[in-house]
């Protein structure tokens, strides 16, 4: 694993600190790069909030590799606005904010969570809206050379992307209908493994379509080594397949030292 391609998810790690102090904590732990879920309460935050977020990352001397687009109220179970007709305006307005942040912090990927199925709404209507909204987001991301990412998630019965193939099919639809090719798979190995996907197949056969990888062990979503996943094998598969992009540490801290496991994979360097 290339230690220079590691990024730390500061929405899941360093959560004992206020959000704006986490980039510095990542830097102090030896990382050059961080990522966040949407860090604001609203889809369109005040300029002051955006500036404070950008400064916290800049001042820490790290870059923001990835950012989740506004995804609704996660604590209430929402997971994305992409396919929600009443939220489209909010989603589209948040894209400008996200891309503006990305332009300042060298962001290469924006994770657009798909959104749960909505009771009473036609599935085809939700899917068609998602493809159109993805095209808008992908065009905006392309202005700074970034990708839009689609992430299968586990444990949410109403969230329709569960396997890598589900996300790839949506990416295919965006390409077919809008001739846009910067919508890629976010392979979160924890979610894919929990959903029973074939990680060997996904990582070796779809390498070129993976825009980003996130890792956490399953079960539990803790540090690699705290569950039953074979990280040595999965990370080797990615290396052998020539995966060139970032890998994110996106897990909950359950051990006294949440990054001790890394030394065995990076010869002590990160
Ligand atoms: O909601 C989650 O579990 C995520 O991984 C969001 O990116």
Automatic annotation (TrEMBL):
Pfam families named in the record? AP_endonuc_2
The record places domain Xylose isomerase-like TIM barrel at: 24-260
Q: Which residues form the active site?
A: 151, 250
What highest taxon heads this organism's lineage? Answer: Bacteria
- From the UniProt record, give one GO term of the biological process aspect: glyoxylate metabolic process
Sequence similarity: Belongs to the hyi family.
UniProt-recorded name of the protein? Hydroxypyruvate isomerase
**Lineage, opening ranks:** Bacteria, Bacillati, Actinomycetota, Actinomycetes, Mycobacteriales
């Amino acid at each position: 694993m290339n230690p220079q391609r590691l990024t730390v998810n500061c929405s899941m790690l360093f959560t004992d600190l206020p959000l704006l102090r986490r980039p510095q904590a990542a830097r102090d732990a030896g990382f050059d790069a961080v990522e966040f879920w949407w860090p604001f309460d609203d889809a369109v935050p005040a300029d002051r909030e955006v500036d404070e977020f950008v400064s916290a990352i800049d001042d820490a001397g790290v870059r923001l590799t990835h950012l989740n687009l506004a995804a609704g109220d996660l604590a209430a179970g929402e997971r994305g606005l992409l396919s929600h007709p009443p939220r489209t305006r909010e989603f589209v307005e948040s894209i400008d904010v996200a891309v503006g942040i990305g332009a300042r912090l060298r962001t290469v990927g924006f994770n657009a969570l798909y959104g749960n199925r909505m009771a009473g709404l036609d599935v085809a209507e939700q899917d068609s809206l998602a493809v159109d909204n993805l095209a808008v987001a992908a065009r905006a991301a392309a202005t700074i050379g970034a990708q839009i990412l689609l992430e299968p998630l586990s444990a949410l019965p109403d969230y329709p992307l569960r396997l890598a193939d589900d996300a790839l099919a949506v990416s295919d639809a965006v390409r077919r209908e809008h001739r846009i090719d910067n919508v890629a798979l976010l392979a979160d190995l924890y979610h894919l493994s929990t959903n029973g996907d074939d990680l060997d197949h996904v990582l070796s056969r779809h390498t070129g379509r993976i825009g980003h990888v996130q890792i956490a062990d399953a079960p539990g979503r803790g540090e690699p080594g705290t569950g039953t996943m074979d990280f040595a094998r999965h990370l080797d598969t990615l290396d052998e397949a020539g995966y060139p992009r970032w890998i994110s540490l996106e897990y909950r801290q359950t051990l006294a030292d949440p990054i001790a496991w890394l030394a065995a994979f990076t010869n002590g360097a990160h």
